[in-house]
Amino acid sequence: PVDEIRKVIASMEEFPDRPHLIGGYALGKSQRLIRLLRQAGYDAPIGMHGALKRLTDYHIEQGVELGELVHVDDASGPRLCLAPPSAFSTPWVHRFRDPVIGYASGWMGVRARARQRRVELPLVISDHCDWPQLIQTIDDVSPEEVWITHGSEAGLLRWCELTQRPARPLRLVGYEEEDQ
Prior knowledge:
34% helix
């Protein structure tokens, strides 16, 4: 993630006249991007799409320091703006002249995904835990039932079956990173 954030800062230096719009989910990903940017020394205001405000405000209320954040309602906002991925298929993005479109996701490691989404600045930043951590967490928590909410559930369902743990997939509308 640190190297990926360096790409954002380098791109902003290379294209100082182009706004940078970075897509990231409202819960967790956007706040993580802000923290990574701040840790990398980026201290300028960061623009926020309105859909990110409520959850970002919650993080701030809980004591998470995120620096200066401003609501973006037109193209005169900060040079760097965060938005949910869905915003890039709405008129919101058209207010920005020649933006650099970035997207933070583990899926950006797949070049075809970046091309499909017309992403100029793919950032391979995933919030998914690795298999050993996932299994350790299930062992530590020992839930009555494992609910799988994201990704391909077949492997984890099989592991739960082999270890005699009740499990089921949950298909949450709007949560998958796949195009609907």
